[in-house]
Design a protein that fits this description.
Shape: globular
Mean pLDDT: 93
CATH topology of one domain: Rossmann fold
Distance between the termini: 17 Å
CATH class of one domain: Alpha Beta
Helix content: 40-55%
Number of strands: 11
Largest sheet: 7 strands, mixed
Number of helices: 21
Oligomer: single chain
Radius of gyration: 21 Å
CATH architecture of one domain: 3-Layer(aba) Sandwich
Length: 457
C-alpha cells in the first residue's frame, strides 16, 4: 500500500490541509508519535498557524540588530531535516522510482537527515538503513533504532563523508536498494527553497508588522547537506539585498580555504561541496570554532548560564523557551549571525534570520562529556562565556564572495561529484547558470500535482 503525506504547499501552509485530517495529525503528534499521520505535521508552523521562532535578546547577542531563529525541534523527529527526507522520498515515490515492499531505502547522513530517514521510511512502508559516522552522539543512534530503522556505523566523525560514500557504493550493488543521498537529492533543495524560504518571508512580514524591524538584512546557515541554505535563494528573489552567509567549523574550513579536519559541530562541515548547493548565491563564508559553539550551548542549556542571563535582564519565559531549543549547530548559526551583523554594520531595524536545526535532546551526552573533561560551568564562567563567545564574537574568519571565490567553491564540486560520484562535467558547468536552479524550483508545483492525483485529493 502506498502512503502519501503532504504537498510542498501543505508543508508551507498546513492550514490548507483538510480540517479533520489535520486535527487527527495534531492529536497523533502527542498520542501516536510513530503514526504516519505525523507526516502532516512536517511544517515550520504550529497549531496556531504561526511560524515557530525565537527573537533572541540583546542581553545574549550583544548587538542592536535582531536575530530571529526558526525552531526545528517541533518537527515530528525533533529536527527540520525530516522535511528534507520526506520530500526526497515522496518525489521518488510519485515518479515511480521507489515502491514500499519492493525497495530498501538507504539514508547516508552525518546526523539529523539519517534520523529523518529512519522516521519517514518506515512510516511510508519502506525498509530503511541509515549510514552514520561512529563518533556521532549516542542519542542519534537510539532515535534511529526507536523509529524502526537499522544503521551502519562508518569510521570517523562528522567530517568523514568519504567513508559514508564508500559504504553507499558497497550497498547500492545489492538488489532493490535505493540510495537517497541528501547531498545530491534536489527534493532537499526544494523543501528548503519553498517551505523554509517562504516561511521566513511570512515571518518577516509578521515581525515587521509588529514593528520589530524594517529590513530583511541577512540569512546565515551552517552547511551539512547545504539544504537549509537553499532558503537564501528564495529570500533573494524577494529581498535582493539580503546577505546570504554560509558557515563552517574553524576546524574544517572547506569552502573557506580548501581546508579539512575533524570537528564536533554535528550536522555541518562535511569536507566537501554538495551537489545541491547553489554556491553562486552566497555572499560570504564564515567559520566558527566548535568549542565556542559547544560552550555557548552550555550557557543556554544549563542552570548557571540561565541565572547569568537572568541577572542581565532576560525574562524567565524566554530563558525557558531557549533552553531546549538549541543544539550545537544552532548555536553555530547564531554566532554566525552575530559575526555577519558586525561585518556589515547591521543595527536597529535590521533582522537576521537563522535556524536551530534540532534541540537539546540530541546532546546530553555531549554536555556530560564536556563537564567531565573541563569541569562544571559555574556562574562566573557563564558570565565570561557570554562576553567572550557572544558579545565579543569577532568578524574574523570571514571570506567575502568575490567572483574568484565563487568560481573556487563551484569548482570544488568536481573532485567529489565528477571524479567519485558519476556526475558529468556538462551538468557541473550548467549549475553556474540561473536557469538551472529555476528549473529545479519549478518542479515544486508539478510534484504537488502528482501527490494530489495519486492520493486522490
Amino acid at each position: 500500500m502506498m502512503i502519501y503525506g503532504p504537498t510542498f504547499e501543505e508543508m508551507l501552509h498546513p492550514e490548507t490541509i483538510e480540517a479533520g485530517l489535520r486535527r487527527r495529525a495534531r492529536e497523533a503528534l502527542e498520542k501516536e508519535p510513530l503514526s504516519p499521520l505525523n507526516l502532516y505535521n512536517i511544517s515550520w508552523k504550529g497549531a496556531d498557524d504561526r511560524v515557530r521562532h525565537l527573537v533572541l535578546p540583546r542581553e545574549l547577542t550583544g548587538i542592536d540588530a535582531e536575530i530571529v531563529v526558526l525552531l526545528g525541534r517541533f518537527f515530528p523527529t525533533g529536527s527540520h531535516k525530516v522535511g528534507a527526507t520526506y520530500s526526497c522520498c515522496i518525489e521518488r515515490q510519485v515518479r515511480g522510482q521507489v515502491q514500499p515492499g519492493k525497495h530498501r531505502l538507504v539514508w547516508p547522513s552525518t546526523g539529523n537527515y539519517g534520523i529523518g530517514g529512519a522516521y519517514v521510511g518506515p512510516r511510508m512502508g519502506y525498509d530503511s538503513l541509515v549510514i552514520l559516522p561512529e563518533e556521532m552522539s549516542q542519542e542519534r543512534f537510539d532515535k534511529i533504532a526507536w523509529y524502526g530503522a537499522k544503521y551502519v556505523k562508518t569510521p570517523g566523525c562528522e567530517s568523514n563523508v568519504k567513508e559514508i560514500y564508500d559504504k553507499t557504493h558497497e550497498l547500492e550493488r545489492e538488489a532493490n536498494t535505493i540510495i537517497v543521498n541528501q547531498f545530491a537529492e534536489f527534493g532537499n533543495y526544494r523543501f528548503h527553497w519553498h517551505v523554509t524560504g517562504n516561511s521566513i518571508l511570512a515571518l518577516f512580514d509578521e515581525l515587521r508588522g509588529k514593528g520589530l524591524g524594517t529590513r530583511l538584512a541577512g540569512f546565515t546557515s551552517a552547511m551539512g547537506s547545504s539544504g537549509t541554505i537553499a532558503a537564501g535563494d528564495r529570500l533573494r528573489q524577494v529581498h535582493a539585498d539580503v546577505r546570504v552567509v554560509g558557515l563552517e567549523p574553524v576546524q574544517c574550513p572547506t569552502l573557506y580555504s580548501n581546508g579539512f579536519g575533524g570537528h564536533d559541530i554535528q550536522g555541518i562541515g562535511d569536507k566537501h561541496v554538495t551537489w545541491i548547493h547553489n554556491t553562486d548565491n552566497m555572499d560570504a563564508m564564515a567559520c566558527l570554532d566548535e568549542w565556542d559553539c559547544k560552550k555557548g550551548l552550555q550557557v543556554i542549556a544549563e542552570e548557571p548560564g540561565r541565572r547569568a542571563l537572568a541577572r542581565r535582564g532576560v525574562k524567565s519565559e524566554l530563558l525557558e523557551a531557549m533552553a531546549p531549543s538549541f543544539g550545537i549547530s544552532g548555536i553555530c548559526n547564531v554566532l554566525g549571525a552575530i559575526k555577519t551583523a558586525k561585518r556589515y554594520r547591521m543595527g536597529k531595524g535590521d533582522i537576521l534570520f537563522t535556524v536551530a536545526t534540532d534541540g537539546l535532546d540530541r546532546y546530553p551526552s555531549v554536555l556530560a562529556a564536556m563537564t567531565k573533561q573541563h569541569g562544571a560551568m559555574d556562574e562566573a564562567e557563564a558570565e565570561r562565556r557570554i562576553e567572550a563567545i557572544f558579545h565579543k564574537q569577532a568578524d574574523d574568519w570571514y571570506l567575502e564572495a568575490t567572483q574568484h571565490a565563487r568560481d573556487c567553491w563551484a569548482n570544488l564540486k568536481y573532485y567529489t561529484w565528477v571524479e567519485q560520484q558519476g556526475k558529468t562535467v556538462a551538468e557541473l558547468r550548467r549549475q553556474r547558470s540561473r536557469e538551472y536552479w529555476l528549473e529545479h524550483q519549478a518542479l515544486v508545483p508539478e510534484t504537488d500535482r502528482m501527490i494530489r492525483e495519486q492520493r486522490g485529493s
